[in-house]
Specification:
heterotrimer, A alpha/beta (about 425), B mainly alpha (about 425), C mainly alpha (about 325), A: about 425 residues, Rossmann fold, 5-stranded parallel sheet, B: about 425 residues, mainly alpha, ABC transporter involved in vitamin B12 uptake, BtuC, 2 domains, two-stranded antiparallel ribbon, about 5% strand, globular, transmembrane helix (chain C)
Chain lengths: ~425, ~425, ~325
């Protein structure tokens, strides 16, 4: 038995050292699900990172006089525990930049672990580039110096969304439904609070949470929503919960607009297809249709040429890469992450997808334009999932929630 | 003598190694002490910690499955609840409670024991399918509660704490991974020894009797229900210790510590290692952790390999990896283990070729189907080639076919050698 | 009231779908003593096969071919996998099917990737059959009801009127005796396993467009199928039918009616602590029925097993 143990550990260590670091590239660890039920979102994100690193940095001569970006994928199986193990592996490989986005639960675990790691091991600190986890707590109560969020948080998105809803006099009754966990609750609380302030005449005819990932058939929920007489509904659902809810609601006769956070890409657009045309709306950063510039158009075409089934459904990934490159150039080093972080704080940057970006120094929350986009097949230059359907910009809130309050009380090294 | 474990569940405490002597334990302790000097990176330490936790958990699971004959689909509940409770304890320590970190697993164990006592009071009334289904139901209920009862479980994001806030012990504050490793290793030894000694006690032996024949055990005057309940509580205690070690290592507990996936994977770990042997779960935990953590760095389809390995184990080696090793005890005792070296070495080459080429077939097909368009370049075993060309696929298929042919050709020779090695007498017995 | 009627119909669809899975599973269990953990995986295979076929020739060919293909795979797995493990006992058998479930999920991802597939209901059925107070009832769901009912009637006919069915029925109650009478039990086993998995495959074919065709679909349904047959009583076809409908309706009504713990507690004379987010009882006060709906079947199962281990309609103990 001992010899087996030895052999196995030998294999493990051979494994761990074989991928040891080379200093000629700047490595970014991509820790997200690459297997299991959420793997499609993770794999899509990875492709966008790899493409963005090549297109934004490497093909333009790299940074610091020729260093390229390299994205190193780690499969966290969307498990906090696996994420922490992979984080250690990444740090041991000499990686100093950690990108993660899927699931606020994992992001919470990572931001906590990274803060502890950085205080216990000042010699090899790392930065956390959060590109998609939108739990407001991450830039409020749980904020720390090492965490930067490149997506708008749930409150900011709801702020922009309710601005748009408030202008629509046809909406008198709204149904709010979401997944039963921190993010779903944050969406519901923000919706109720902000609608109450902006349009007190709108009645919230339903506000409920359903178990996350456990509902097999959304028909009963759809029945309730139709029966409530709602003019519009708001949901923060993602993944198969989004597809299930969206399809059931439309199939069972709901007529109004459906405002969502995540109803695009990763197979969702194709699954919703014709039934959601002109009905499903999405609050997101980054305008895909119509393209904002020839440059954006060319970028998307190049991506399509490489991944014909893929989508740029998280355009902010290009901003992560671009801003990181600018910060490393500004700091003159990729090893001293404190200097890089200081560069990122307060940085202004022009996104290729048509927005000015500003990294708020007090809570490390990126401020950017938010767009309401509609799911359709008309005027779609770049579709999602090869389905002919895509999202088209309807309206924009520029530099959304620039002055939103934060409870973040950041300790700086 | 083909396989010693045709019914893998009938011998919970068979020994591959004479564990009732002190020597194996001392060797294990020395190995655990030296390991961090060999593998000193933080990630290696983290993986070894993870292994140690899985070993304790799997051993506690085998107290049910291997020794008690109880198939549970909800064992994560006891590890998870023990871990959650310890996390709260850690937070109380941060608020001023005096408790040295090394003592934390005791409390985790007691909490696991407490819940095993509660749930066991009704779930252990019957064995077999009823027990299995109740464990599934309770597992699902507790996992669902973890999202609903936010105040204790922290909802989907779980609860976290800081292990360094307690009093220092011997100048250690348990911040660095290495210190945590030694703490985990110490508790691994304590827990493993505890579980081994438990299996030697009368109550541990009666558990085997109840597993093998409920009625006979009843006639002997043992209430089968009480025996199961005792095993269940003991198992809950050690699972709780594993939970506490998890809390110390990862400083966070979430819903995944309770859910059915975790419960299912410990079944997988234990069976893979071999339920018939005390060391089985240990081997299973080591192999599984390596597969999960290290293999997933190299290939996207690691879970497919794991599934194949598991199904193949159940089909061909129901005694698990430990059973495979145990088959060689007899040739060893007969002094004929040397007779197997040459046939094994002959078999090794085509077997290795077959496994590698079969994996290559899968990898190439997977790359062809799922890589980006125009991304034809593929790297396998250090060779770079065009995954969409016919040649690489034909080559690996040919290697696979040739090696399979060689395996079939060599099999009778191996079998003859095996028969020779497992029989008394001269060279041509 | 109109919502109530709609819910009855929706619950019927869910329940009948569940029954299509449970009937096969309970047949397999009764005959072979194997709780087939991979049963829902065959359901998933049915959906994926039908999707693949629908890409070339539309929905209807898949409806016929996919279940047959799944049944053949099931029979082969019984012949070359399960039968081999059978001699080791029931626990290894169960563990084998457990591993099989993992393997099938991985295999599906290997071939079709990880995203949800755009498997759609046929256009001929893509209209609203009728409407009750604004809630439309899709024609496709009526179709699902008919298929499930049809399957149930065919099964009932085979089991009660044909010779094969008599043998199977006898084996349900007296497995040893039937074997002693000299029936080719291994052949019957293979047949039952094939038919049982084919029925799961058929359920997948018709459920795929409604519930979604994605690699997690088996896991989502897997344990609930067990729960249903355990509640109904292992080995009882009628028990499986009644338990399926019961769970279908429980889940539908629990999701629809927003019974709140707050109202119950207030009516019992308790006062809600304010502010609620500061109270140790916050989770109890904010609890609602839809939140706990999906776990009600598990709760029901634990209670049933503790009180009556053979299930509601089971005759012999497991």
């Amino acid at each position: 038995m001992k010899s087996v143990k030895k052999l196995m550990l030998g294999v493990a260590v051979a494994g761990l050292t074989a991928t040891a670091s080379f200093a000629d590239t700047i490595k970014i660890a991509f820790i997200d699900p690459l297997s299991g039920p959420f793997a499609s979102t993770g794999t899509n994100g990875l492709h966008q990172y790899q493409f963005a690193a090549d297109a934004v940095v490497n093909e333009n001569g790299g940074v610091l006089g020729g260093m390229n970006f390299e994205i190193v994928p780690f499969d966290n199986k969307i498990s906090p525990k696996e994420s922490l193990i992979q984080l250690q592996v990444a740090i041991d490989q000499g990686i100093r930049f950690i990108a993660q986005g899927n699931s606020s639960g994992v992001a919470n675990a990572l931001t906590d672990a990274i803060a502890k790691h950085n205080s216990r091991n000042p010699d090899d600190r790392v930065l956390f580039l959060n590109y998609a986890a939108v739990d407001p707590a991450l830039t409020n109560d749980k904020c720390n110096f090492w965490h930067f969020r490149f997506d708008a948080n749930a409150d900011i998105k709801m702020d922009a969304l309710t601005d748009v809803i408030a202008q629509n006099d046809g909406i008198k009754k709204i149904y709010v439904i979401g997944q039963d966990y921190s993010f779903g609750k944050a969406v519901a609380a923000a919706a109720v609070g902000m609608l109450g302030a902006k349009r007190p005449d709108i009645e919230i005819v339903g506000n409920e949470l359903h178990p996350i990932g456990k509902v097999k058939d959304f028909t009963p929920y759809a029945r309730k929503i139709v029966a409530s007489g709602a003019d519009a509904m708001i949901t923060g659902n993602w993944g198969s919960d989004m597809v299930g809810l969206g399809k059931a609601v439309i199939e069972n006769g709901f007529e109004g607009p459906i405002y969502t956070y995540y109803a695009a890409g990763s197979g969702i657009t194709a699954a919703i297809g014709e039934s959601g045309k002109g009905r499903i709306r999405l609050i997101a950063e980054g305008q895909i249709n119509p393209p904002v510039s020839d440059e954006a158009s060319a970028m998307y075409k190049a991506y399509k040429a490489k991944h014909p089934d893929g989508n740029i459904d998280q355009p902010r990934i290009f901003n992560v890469i671009g801003m990181l490159a600018k910060a490393i150039e500004g700091a003159g080093t990729a090893d001293d992450v404190v200097a890089v972080a200081k560069q990122l704080e307060g940085m202004e940057y022009q996104s290729i997808w048509g927005s000015k970006l500003f990294m708020r120094p007090q809570d490390h929350q990126l401020i950017q334009d938010m767009h309401i986009q509609v799911h359709t097949d008309e005027g779609v230059e770049f579709d999602y999932d090869g389905s002919g359907f895509g999202v088209v910009r309807e309206s924009t809130v520029s530099m959304a929630s620039m002055d939103i309050a934060t409870t973040c009380n950041m300790e700086r090294p | 003598m083909s396989t010693p474990a045709t019914t893998p569940l009938t011998a919970g405490t068979r020994r591959l190694i004479p564990l009732n002597h002190a020597l194996p334990w001392i060797i294990a302790a020395v190995c655990l002490f030296i390991l961090p000097y060999v593998f000193d990176s933080r990630s290696a330490l983290t993986i070894m910690n993870q292994m140690a936790i899985t070993i304790v958990f799997a051993l506690s699971y085998n107290m049910l499955l291997g020794q008690g004959g109880m198939l549970s689909f909800g064992h994560a509940v006891y590890m998870g609840l023990g871990g959650f409770f310890c996390m709260h304890l850690l937070n109380w320590v941060e608020a001023g409670l005096w408790l040295p970190l090394p003592l934390l697993p005791v409390f985790g164990g007691l909490f696991g024991l407490f819940f095993a006592f509660l749930i066991g009071s009704f779930s252990t009334r019957r064995a077999g399918t009823v027990f299995a289904m109740i464990s599934l139901g309770v597992g699902e209920l507790v996992a669902a509660c973890s999202v609903i009862i936010v105040i204790f479980f922290g909802g989907e994001e779980g609860i976290s704490g800081d292990r360094t806030m307690g009093p220092e012990v011997l100048g250690w504050d348990f911040g660095p991974q290495e210190q945590v490793y030694y703490l985990t290793a110490l508790w691994l030894l304590i827990a493993a020894l505890g579980m081994f000694l438990y299996s030697r006690t009368p109550i541990g032996r009666v558990a085997n009797a109840v597993r093998d024949n409920e009625e006979r055990a009843e006639f002997l005057g043992y209430s089968q229900r009480h025996v199961r309940w005792m095993s269940f509580m003991a198992s809950g205690f050690f699972a709780g210790i594993a939970g506490a070690l998890f809390a110390i290592n990862f400083e966070i507990l979430t819903e995944e510590n309770l859910n059915l996936t975790t419960s299912g994977s410990i079944l997988l770990v234990t069976f893979l290692g071999g339920v018939g042997f005390f060391v089985g779960p240990i081997i299973g935990a080591i192999v599984f952790t390596l597969l999960q953590t290290v293999l997933s760095l190299y290939t996207e389809i690691w879970a497919l390999y794991l599934g194949i390995l598991f199904v193949a184990t159940v089909m061909f080696f129901p005694g698990g990896l430990a059973g495979l090793l145990a088959m060689h005890v007899l040739p060893w005792k007969l002094g004929k283990i040397g007779h197997l070296v040459v046939p094994y070495a002959k078999m090794l080459i085509p077997a290795l070729a077959f496994v590698l080429s079969a994996a290559a077939v899968l990898e190439i097909l997977f790359h062809k189907r799922h890589a980006g368009l125009g991304d034809h370049e593929m790297n396998l075993y250090g060779i770079t080639f065009d995954s969409h060309g016919a040649m690489p696929l034909i080559t690996v298929l040919a290697i696979a076919a040739v090696s399979l042919f060689a395996i079939v050709k060599l099999a009778p020779g191996l079998k003859a050698a095996w028969d020779d090695a497992t029989h008394m007498g001269g060279h041509h017995g | 009231m109109s919502l109530f009627i709609v819910n009855i119909l929706d619950g019927l669809v869910t329940g009948l779908l569940l029954f299509m899975l449970c009937s096969g599973l309970t047949l397999i269990f009764s005959m072979m003593g194997v709780l087939n953990f991979a049963h829902a995986s065959f359901y998933m295979l049915g959906a994926y096969f039908a999707y693949q076929i629908s890409l070339f020739s539309g929905f209807w060919l898949g409806l016929i071919v996919a279940p047959i293909a799944v049944g053949v795979i099931g029979a082969l797995i019984e012949r070359y996998g399960l039968r081999r493990v059978h001699k080791y006992g029931h626990v290894p058998e169960l563990i084998f099917t457990f591993g099989l479930a993992l393997l099938i999920e991985e295999a599906v991802q290997f071939f079709w990737g990880k995203s949800q597939q755009a498997y759609e209901a046929p256009e001929a059925l893509d209209f609203a059959a009728f409407q009750i107070a604004g809630n439309t009832f899709p024609a496709y769901k009526l179709f699902m009801i008919f298929v499930a009912m049809g399957l149930f009637l065919v099964l009932l006919y085979i089991l009660t009127k044909t010779r094969v069915g008599m043998t199977i029925q006898a084996a349900l109650s007296y497995p040893e005796t039937v074997q002693n009478l000299g029936h080719n039990v291994p052949m019957v086993f293979m047949g039952v396993f094939g038919v049982g998995t084919a029925m799961a495959g058929l359920a997948g074919v018709i459920a795929g467009p409604v519930l979604g065709t994605f690699p997690g679909m088996a896991f989502l349904l897997g344990s609930i199928v067990f729960v249903t047959i355990v509640i109904g009583g292992l080995g009882s076809l009628w028990g499986a039918l009644i338990a399926s409908l019961l769970i279908g309706w429980i889940q539908t009504f629990a999701a629809t009616y927003n019974v709140r713990m707050e109202d119950i507690l207030t009516s019992l004379g308790f006062t809600k602590p304010e502010p609620i987010w500061d109270s140790a009882w916050q989770d109890l006060w904010t609890l609602t029925l839809p939140q706990i709906g999906p776990i009600l079947p598990y709760l029901l199962m634990v209670i049933v097993l503790v009180v009556r281990p053979q299930g509601l309609f089971g005759k012999r103990e497991t």
